[in-house]
Amino acid sequence: MEPNTGVTFDDVAGVDEAKQDFMEVVEFLKKPERFTAVGARIPKGVLLVGPPGTGKTLLAKAIAGEAGVPFFSISGSEFVEMFVGVGASRVRDLFKKAKENAPCIVFVDEIDAVGRQRGTGIGGGNDEREQTLNQLLTEMDGFEGNTGIIVIAATNRADILDSALLRPGRFDRQVRFLIMLGNASCSYSRINC
């Protein structure tokens, strides 16, 4: 856990529209009572999609930095272990710590390592990955959108993600980062699910 990322929107270049869009999330994390008083719901999860090097991780850190909330970060590959049950246990532990430190951001980098479509392989490693994915889905279903925990995940392979991750109530919003040819900056588009 990083109590303060030290990163703000000023540190993120080329995605001004995305930063403006995420101000709503920042405001919710700063003052959730303003949103809950009027019955507004913030998305539980946001999926950042794009090639490596487009600023997905930096933007996630900047959201936490702007809001002044703790930032929990883990790579999807860290969840998947050789021993069955370890990954699911890590997911439970992560969300337990997040609930204790809410409001906060939980960032899962390379979610495709654990969130790949189920039933696409055989063997013990696949069973462990599926158990870990099931636990992640359970945890995301187990908290209300107004608990102050926002899950942000990043991938460069949204096409292989399990459809259960993308259904409403989990990753409600997708943000796509595209490298523009001949330009070092990134393009941005948002897809509401």
Automatic annotation (TrEMBL):
<dbReference type="GO" id="GO:0005524">
    <property type="term" value="F:ATP binding"/>
</dbReference>
<keyword id="KW-0482">Metalloprotease</keyword>
<dbReference type="GO" id="GO:0046872">
    <property type="term" value="F:metal ion binding"/>
</dbReference>
<keyword id="KW-0479">Metal-binding</keyword>
<feature type="domain" description="AAA+ ATPase">
    <location>
        <begin position="42"/>
        <end position="181"/>
    </location>
</feature>
<protein>
    <recommendedName>
        <fullName>AAA+ ATPase domain-containing protein</fullName>
    </recommendedName>
</protein>
<comment type="similarity">
    <text>In the C-terminal section; belongs to the peptidase M41 family.</text>
</comment>
<keyword id="KW-0547">Nucleotide-binding</keyword>
<dbReference type="GO" id="GO:0009535">
    <property type="term" value="C:chloroplast thylakoid membrane"/>
</dbReference>
<keyword id="KW-0472">Membrane</keyword>
<dbReference type="InterPro" id="IPR003593">
    <property type="entry name" value="AAA+_ATPase"/>
</dbReference>
<keyword id="KW-0809">Transit peptide</keyword>
<dbReference type="InterPro" id="IPR003959">
    <property type="entry name" value="ATPase_AAA_core"/>
</dbReference>
<dbReference type="GO" id="GO:0004176">
    <property type="term" value="F:ATP-dependent peptidase activity"/>
</dbReference>
<keyword id="KW-0067">ATP-binding</keyword>
<dbReference type="GO" id="GO:0016887">
    <property type="term" value="F:ATP hydrolysis activity"/>
</dbReference>
<comment type="similarity">
    <text>Belongs to the AAA ATPase family.</text>
</comment>
<dbReference type="GO" id="GO:0006508">
    <property type="term" value="P:proteolysis"/>
</dbReference>
<dbReference type="InterPro" id="IPR027417">
    <property type="entry name" value="P-loop_NTPase"/>
</dbReference>
<dbReference type="GO" id="GO:0008237">
    <property type="term" value="F:metallopeptidase activity"/>
</dbReference>
<dbReference type="InterPro" id="IPR003960">
    <property type="entry name" value="ATPase_AAA_CS"/>
</dbReference>
<keyword id="KW-0862">Zinc</keyword>
<keyword id="KW-0378">Hydrolase</keyword>
<dbReference type="Pfam" id="PF00004">
    <property type="entry name" value="AAA"/>
</dbReference>
<keyword id="KW-0645">Protease</keyword>
